[in-house]
Every structure is written in structure tokens, then in C-alpha cells.
Target: DUF916 domain-containing protein
Amino acid sequence: MVAVRRALVLVALLLMPVLLVPATPAAAQNDDLRWAVIPSGPQGPNGRGAFEYEAKPGDVIADTVGVSNLTDQPITFTVYSTDAFTSADGAFSLFPAATPPKDLGTWTDLTPKSYTVQPKTRADIAFKLTVPLNATPGDHAGGIIASVVEQQTTAQGQQVNVDRRIAARIYLRVAGPVTPTVQVESLTVGYEAPALPFGTGDLVVTYRVKNAGNVRVHGTARVRATGPLGVGLGDAAEVTVPELLPGAEFTVQKRIPGVRSLGRLTASVTVNAEAKEGRLPVASRSASVWASPWGLAGLVVLLAGAAALVVRWRLRRRSAGLR
Model:
């Protein structure tokens, strides 16, 4: 009875909603600093959400970036370009200021330079992007950043410099052979046994989706659990695979509850991805884990014991001359 009560308490705790409280900054940020960085042109912004180009090695692209001061005071920005990468959580990210670019960020002639923009105005800054003769085919990504460094005070009273950055993305497709490829890597499966002998446990599946090609890809992924003889044991909710830049990886962990320990359990991952060229072949991978069927074995032993007692009881009745 105590074990049953503990199990019910555990289930209740698992079903309670989780409240996520945002972290409180050490010092209040200066919300008066507001600005925007967008693609622009000779006549001003032209509705582009990002800089997107297709070019050949050796091409030179001329363009304009607009840095708008949305406040009532002058702001001095440092404007520069750098490389992009896909972060661990799948977000489009840019190298920090202290990390020198090695790819697209070096092809853009925006070396760090200060620009003072007057209130409620926009500075249209011209730049050129030169594609190297040895540029590799496929997609390259980066960004043009306008940053403001402001001083803040921590809870311990220390003065720290905080680099606040806003950027416009750059996507460049270099002409040549493209290889849109997605792989499922490093698939591991674990089983968390139930608290009660005849209960169900959780199948925990961790896998990594890798963009092994040279163009951007995105898509969806799903996990399916099966038992012996392919018996279906459950599916995890579909996961959105965010935009992955070439070489990027995205790690996913999914939990499939309510899985019985029936021996060998298998998790199968399928990824449906697509690129600019269209839908890619489905990528898949499977892995298994052994979940000892103690509950089932105990039930079999119990039934076998009960059958043995019945047989023994009948034999005794017969030996005593009873029917």
C-alpha cells in the first residue's frame, strides 16, 4: 500500500505544470537604446528580410545596410561583419566580437568602424562583398552587426561592459556542385523502469541530426518505439528541425512514456528534410535497449505456481478417493 501511495505521489508531481521564471538581470538594462539593422539600397530599405545572393567565385557584390536609430538621442555604433553558425539549440548565431571570422565575414569589407547616427534617422552604409576565387560551392552565412557597448553594474557592485548587438543576416550561394545531405547520428536509447512491477516505464531517446552537405536544410523528425516482433509501443511528438547551416548539428532528446518492459525495445528515428533544391531522401536510424520483463516473468511464475497447486490439490483428492 505504501508503494502504491508513493507511486501516485510521483505521478502527481510529474503531472504538475512547470513554471519558467525569466532570469533577473544584475542591473536594469538601458531600454532607451533601440535600433534596427536591415538591408537597404540607394532609395532606402527595399523590403528584404536578409541579404541573399547567388554568385560565382571572383564576383563582387555591392550593397547597402541601413542602421536606424529609433531613440531621441544620438547613438554611436560599431558596424562590422562576421560569420554565422548554428548554435546547439538550433538558432542562427553570429561569432562574438572577440572571435575573428574565417569565411563570409572576411569577404565583406566592413572592418569594425564607428558610426554616430542622429535621433530618429538612418545611416545607409555601403559595402562590397568579394567572393574569393577558391570559395567552396554551396551556402555560406554571416551577418552585418551594429553593436553598442554600455557599462552596467552587477549585484556585487562591479562595473562590466555589455556588448548589445543587432544584425542583418547574409546568405550567399556560391555556384558549383551542391550536396543536400542529412544524417541521423549518435542515437542512444535508455529505459527508465517502472516503480511498480506491472507498471510502465519511459523510453528516453537521444539523437543528433547533422547537415552533412554544403547547403542549408530544415525539416521534421519523429521517433517510434517498437517491441518484440515489431509491436508498436508509442510515438514521440514530431520535432521541428530548424535551419541547419552546412556542417551544423542539432541534438534532440525525446521521452516516450507508458512503455512496458517487454524485453528488447527499439527506437527508430526518421528525418524528413528539405533544401532549396527540394525534399531530401528520408534519413533514418534505429537502436535498441534491453528492458527486463520482470513483471511479465513474475506473472508467468505466479500463474505456473497456481497451476501447480491446483494439480497437486487434485492429485491429493484422487489419492483420498474423492472426485
Q: What stands out?
A: The two ends are 40 Å apart (CA to CA).
